[in-house]
Amino acid sequence: xxxxxxxxxxxxxxxxxxxxxxxxxxxxxxxxxxxxxxxxxxxxxxxxxxxxxxxxxxxxxxxxxxxxxxxxxxxxxxxxxxxxxxxxxxxxxxxxxxxxxxxxxxxxxxxxxxxxxxxxxxxxxxxxxxxxxxxxxxxxxxxxxxxxxxxxxxxxxxxxxxxxxxxxxxxxxxxxxxxxxxxxxxxxxxxxxxxxxxxxxxxxxxxxxxxxxxxxxxxxxxxxxxxxxxxxxxxxxxxxxxxxxxxxxxxxxxxxxxxxx
Length: 261
Hints:
This protein is 48% helix and 11% strand.
């Protein structure tokens, strides 16, 4: 595929190098809010549909962290019991988890208090956290919030915002200093995104016909991950058909021949 279109590599890979992550206005707005949270907040909330770019935004945020100013801890396994989450936090802090929930709490707080740098706890897929786990996170932050030595970023899909509206989580919701909803692309943003990805790989953005890009937007609903999947399938389809351009006809053929949820 690469030689056919004179590309250096696949332009629509799932996780490009951090320096090549597409930084549109949505991402830049989110990054500015997270950087503010790093200085002034205790809890931050990042919400968005699956595939809209939350992980890319977090990667950029982590890459922007000033050296020797904060200790980031990233967790992705969230569909576990509350005690299991505490054990994961302890392990991620470099400690051996103790037996008993009370000891785990004390172990985490002691470790954070005795660490020179503030701890930034980033929890992905946070919409899968149980209510008990969310309460535990709030208690942890409350236990050390006098010197802001623990900051928590919750990243998840839309159900997370509904969960935090429950009365049981009022105390946590009131501690959220920064909340950002990362939306999907509009039609113009989808076109610019496809062009940028192609340019980054050393080829012409003119490979994709304008109307073809509009069709890709309509089918993907502007979700970057789905755009990547469909655009890659279109390129592969064009290679097999010895086509040099992605036309609306080819996009429709690809959609009919390919399973893309």
